[in-house]
Amino acid sequence: MKARSVPHRSYPTNMVTQLLALAAARSGDTALIVVRSEDSEHAAAADKEIDYGTLDRHIRALAATLQERFAVGERALLLLDNDEHYVVAFFACLYAGLIAVPVFPPESTRERHLARLLAIAADAKACCVLTTSEILPLISSTGQFTQASMIAVDAVKPDEAFAWRPHVPRDDDIAVLQYTSGSTSTPKGVMVSHGNLMANARAIEEGMSMSAKDVYLNWLPFYHDMGLIGGLVQTFHRGMPVVLMTPRSFIERPVRWLEAISRYRVTVSGAPDFAFRLCVERIRDTPMQELALSSWRIAFAGAEPVRHSTMNAFIERFAPVGFAPDAIYPCYGLAEATLFVTGGTRGDGMEAHQFSTELLAQGSAEVVKHGTPLVACGRSLSHHAIRIVDPETLDRLTDGNVGEIWTSGPSLACGYWQRPRETAETFINHEGRRWLRTGDLGFVHAGQLYIAGRRKDLIIVRGQNIY
């Protein structure tokens, strides 16, 4: 990896000016490392490094093509895998003033694989599909898109960069429609503005104490907010190199994640709880001999409940190859808040307690010797707040009481795309402030947030709460 300078820190105003600044000041520094090889023996030789200057030229070339064909504010489907082409496509949308719509690349043209893609395309009224030459025939065969609306990102020549007309987004311009999981017939696009992106990137940077000296590895899919905001926006916001892997590469052989961390001395990487569990269950002793995890200083866990048993098992399994227990970083967030809501302090590790199962069922939390183990998910960051609220009366609850988690601050998305009723139900004005009703249940103990469950998954039996 090429050496990089670390300039004096000042927070960028938007991602377009930030990338242009990185390309101007650090043109030759490594921006991306794309993991190509699935064979660890030859991985380093096959992996591809791309510097900020080269990346910017590709982005401006594609942005010029988009400007020529489409109007500011139109929506572009991003249908690519986790590689440099996705990075170019996403930032080209921002450079051209289009709204990026990340979607899941279908595995085939079978109806069940295409249903969600086509539902999102229809809901967003997408003007085009940004994909690759490899995926293009699959999309063409559906007959749902015109030839003019399908663009192979890898076919756009970087020498067209000169044709880009500078575009500077406003804070309240929509940057991304982040579609949430749910029924394929009723997809909901969360409207994330440029201002939201920058506010959340700053919160992540503050919460995880990240610097340009860090090296980030991401295999989480870019169509998910944890992969897109954490693994792409944040890395360029902070000017740190990012190592990219595909989700499939990890799922096929989880050890590849840890091999890449070892190879590139990665300091920041993370995933939902299931990924840590897969590593514990599927990595055998032989591959362990090649691992060296002492560089890994932030192993964030979020996007689903962080299980105490999983984290303990991961620490025990990988401590012999250098993994530090204090690297575990539980956090909490959701797409409607752009991504990050709460997190701990870098280096503090995992804090967990046993809470009385009986009292939790009655809506209160009390630490006991033997009970339900729950992991602390940290605190809110500057300019943001969380509140625990009775979901029926909307009264604020004191610490130790279970209620709905609300959050507020500049990271709150603008609402749901063309869904005013759902927007009004979820993003509410209360006591002079705009709040997001997360639908998650939790409580605050000793200043930290604990997640108890989902409101929609709560069953009340004879006055007892069953999560």
Give a written overview of the molecule.
The protein is an alpha/beta fold and 467 residues long. It has helices spanning 15-25, 43-46, 52-69, 84-96, 111-124, 136-140, 194-208, 225-238, 247-252, 255-264, 273-282, 285-288, 308-318, 357-361, 420-426; strands spanning 30-34, 48-51, 75-78, 99-102, 128-131, 150-152, 174-179, 189-193, 216-218, 242-244, 268-271, 298-301, 328-333, 340-343, 352-355, 372-375, 385-389, 403-408, 427-430, 433-445, 448-454, 459-461, 464-466. The strands form seven sheets. Strands 17, 18, 19, 20 and 21 form a five-stranded antiparallel sheet that branches. α1 packs across α3 and α7 (194-208) packs across α8. The chain is globular, with a radius of gyration of 22 Å.
Structure keywords:
467 residues; single chain; alpha/beta; five-stranded antiparallel β-sheet; 15 helices
Count of β-strands: 23
* Low-pLDDT runs: 1-8
Radius of gyration over C-alpha positions, nearest whole angstrom: 22 Å
Query: How much helicity do the residues have?
Result: 25-40%
Tally of separate helices: 15
Roughly how many Å apart are the termini? 47 Å
- Global geometry: globular
Average of per-residue pLDDT values: 90
Estimated structural class: alpha/beta
Main beta sheet: strand number and arrangement?
5 strands, antiparallel
Strand content: 15-25%
Topology readout:
Blueprint: H1 15-25, E1 30-34, H2 43-46, E2 48-51, H3 52-69, E3 75-78, H4 84-96, E4 99-102, H5 111-124, E5 128-131, H6 136-140, E6 150-152, E7 174-179, E8 189-193, H7 194-208, E9 216-218, H8 225-238, E10 242-244, H9 247-252, H10 255-264, E11 268-271, H11 273-282, H12 285-288, E12 298-301, H13 308-318, E13 328-333, E14 340-343, E15 352-355, H14 357-361, E16 372-375, E17 385-389, E18 403-408, H15 420-426, E19 427-430, E20 433-445, E21 448-454, E22 459-461, E23 464-466
Parallel strand pairs: 1-10, 3-4, 3-5, 5-6, 9-10, 11-12, 12-13
Antiparallel strand pairs: 1-2, 7-8, 13-14, 15-16, 17-18, 18-20, 19-20, 20-21, 22-23
Helix pairs in contact: 1-3, 3-4, 7-8, 11-13
